[in-house]
């Protein structure tokens, strides 16, 4: 299993930008599928964006065109670039790393980073 540490959250005004980073320790990072999730108070944790080990990406409709997920396997890091932020994007953001099925291991979560969009 990898250990994940998120950073980059904070307070930003509507229309602003933030870039979240998630650094992983451990080996074989390049073989993991990665995702960013968010959880607002009183709500469930939902997938925001994902990127496969081969670079395929997927986004929830509400962030398409505003958020971009990317990965740097050399740095064992996954990023979430968030532009045109809205108050409804306010949540704790978590990264998740899922090992390949053949590994027979469960996925890992980071501790979360708070994003607050407010004027």
Report what the structure shows.
- The strands form two sheets. Strands 2, 4, 5, 6, 9, 10 and 11 form a seven-stranded mixed β-sheet that branches. Strands 1-3-8-7 form a four-stranded antiparallel β-sheet, with no helix packed on it.
- The model has no long low-confidence stretch (mean pLDDT 95).
- The chain has strands at residues 3-7, 10-12, 18-25, 33-39, 46-51, 57-59, 67-72, 77-82, 91-98, 108-109, 113-117.
- It is mostly beta strands and 119 residues long.
- The termini are far apart.
Describe the secondary structure blueprint for this structure.
Layout: E1 3-7, E2 10-12, E3 18-25, E4 33-39, E5 46-51, E6 57-59, E7 67-72, E8 77-82, E9 91-98, E10 108-109, E11 113-117
Parallel strand pairs: 2-11
Antiparallel strand pairs: 1-3, 3-8, 4-5, 4-9, 5-6, 7-8, 9-10, 9-11
DSSP strand count: 11
The helix content is: under 10%
- Report the β-strand fraction as a percent range: over 45%
Query: Using only CA atoms, what is the Rg?
Result: 14 Å
- Name the helix and strand elements from N-terminus to C-terminus, one letter apiece: EEEEEEEEEEE
The pLDDT mean sits at: 95
Largest sheet: 7 strands, mixed
The stretches of 5 or more residues where confidence is low (pLDDT under 50) are: none
State the end-to-end distance. Answer: 39 Å
**SS element count, helices:** 0
Q: Per the principal axes of the C-alpha atoms, what is the gross shape? A: globular
Structural class: mainly beta
Summarize the structure.
With 119 residues, the chain is mostly beta strands.
Can you tag this structure with a few keywords?
single chain; 119 residues; mainly beta; 7-stranded mixed β-sheet; 4-stranded antiparallel β-sheet
